[in-house]
# Entry
Amino acid sequence: MPSRLRQSLALRLAIQYALVFAFGAAVLFAVLYGLLAEAFDAREKNILERQAGEIAAVYQRAGNAALSALPDTSVFVRLLGPNNAAQFVKVPPDWIETQVQQLPIPGWTQQIQTVRVPQNADRDYTIASSPLPNGWVLQVGRLLDSRTVLLAPLRRAFGGVGAAALVLSVAVGTLLAWRATRPLRAVSDTAQRILATGDLSARVPGPEGSGELAVLVRQLNTLLDKNSTHVRVLRETLDNLAHDLRTPLTRLRGTAELAMQDAGDPVEARAALADCVNESDRVLHLLETLLDISAAEAGALKLNRDRLDLRTLTDRAADLYREVADEKKIAVTLDQPAVVELDADAIRLGQVINNLLDNALKYTPAGGRVSLAVRTEPGIAIVMVTDNGPGVPVAERVAIFRRLYRGDASRSQRGLGLGLSMVKAIAEAHSGTVTIDDAPGGGARFTVRLPLVGGAVS
# Structure
């Protein structure tokens, strides 16, 4: 616990804010203290100058006798004659000799001058020098105790109150910061639990509201959901890949074992080798397709772009699958009324159209129909492959584009489960998109949108 307390963000924030508060309060106190001291000095100066004027007027009327009769015993009075010789001195009872000796001798002036002479840290005295018409100078002084009476207690009060406020601010700040950073501790605890147990279903209990930490927690939970989905998909992909590789490899091994057990018949050996080659080609095709999809998704798929008419690729696809369609008595119709030119890789884009047409023929029942249409929108070329088969459930319309995904309806069909993944990867490599929806009258309709020359897919 002490180690965690030392590492606590809440405590560090509270201490930092408390230090900032203490510095600001000290600066504010220093400014106010200076203004208050200056106000006291100005008040004492005005009082002393007024007294100096009054005493000078009394002296001019009655001479030294009037100075001796002054009732105010708290005021120092000194009369300086020629060569600054003291002609009269009256020292208050609470003054000491050193104070009198340290009094400044004024220079020649035609007006009252007031100076403050520090005596110690808390007590100062102020001297007002008033010139007389005969060239003499009358000095009046007062011992100031405002710093002792007012300012010193103020400093002590500020020190005590400031220390208490600093401790209170640290305590309250720590409490508030501890509550405010609770979501961050929940994030740390959840991360530690995931690392310790591998439980990808763990989520951060997030606060309600629209605050920054609440938004952060929700975004982190969303990220954990996506990561969990990716891990689950990866596991499914590995399971499907293992299944798809196990079948041809098992057949390959079985064929090789039978050939080795044969009595040396060359015909049987050649047939076994041919089967081995076919199964090897199937495995290689699976791996090459996976590599092509990975390259396309990473933006590293090399495209040899040329100006081409999209109708050329649809015509080739229809010719390529004509025999397959005739065997199932499926009518394949082309709907491409105008020229549609774009810059694309003819081979890769041909793979897209071929895979979509092959997929449509695979799931369309005998006697059905498949439509291959080419359209344009502003800046966009569109290829639509429509069938009247069973369609694709809404729940599977995102999953069918994942690698090696095989829906319930496709379990009985031969295939690698990579055709639609390849379609999506190649379309996106051409800055396009592929979507699926229900066809009019039933079935599925796949739509590929690609940018025309100078266009862009929004």
The first strand starts at residue 75 and ends at 80.
